[in-house]
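Batch job 17 of 40 flagged for manual review because the log was empty.
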Amino acid sequence: MLTHPTLDQLRSLGLHGMARAFNDLTANAEADTLGHGDWLALLLDREATHRQDKRLGSRLLHARLRHHAVPEDIDYRAARGLDRAVLKGLIEGDWIEAHDNLVITGPTGVGKSWLACALGHKACRDNRSVLYVRAPKLFDDLALAHGDGSFPRRLKRLGAVDLLILDDWGLEPLTAQARHDLLEILEDRYGRRSTLVTSQVPVADWHGLIGHATYADAILDRLVHNAHRIELSGESLRRTKPKPQA
């Protein structure tokens, strides 16, 4: 068999996973015992895996997740009110398919952002588009976008992803422009995409943070009424254990 021409042809066709598998098989003496069907199955399996890994890498790069977090590493032992059954259901992702939202609240350090990124990673693995943004930076960037004319393009991008993670919401009251921008984002996504929000502030206090009754009603109606909720509590997980006395 002419190995090199076959490899060149596979690569020219963009079948890089099959090319690597073909190279591995020809270098393995045990491959001679495989039938043609087995060879083809192995080549196709490697190509499918290669393409899946490539798609995942692209989605994670686009998502810009703050933490390298995966559902398999979630710590259920820490006393922070995390319900394993509820989180298991959220990891499965049906809420994203249904275009529901998710709100994760709790004091600083209990793992809100980490959990959000773990769910975002799983969404990427499920071939969904994800974008992570911190709320304070998002509103600053949008303020600049109004000035340079790029706001419509930014709004379109924010509205297009299957899961938008809005982290650290509510650190400070919204300005008039930020209120308007947030409503535009949520209106564009409502019923079509899912939004995940993390906040140190309880949902009951969000109306006051928005700072305008009409805007607050509209924003909360689009964000909270169809939202699943995780309310965390307990001590900060960032606290280090005291060092033993010498």
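Reviewer: the log was empty due to a logging misconfiguration, but the result itself is present. Residues 153 and 241 are 47 Å apart (CA to CA). Unflagging and moving on to job 18.
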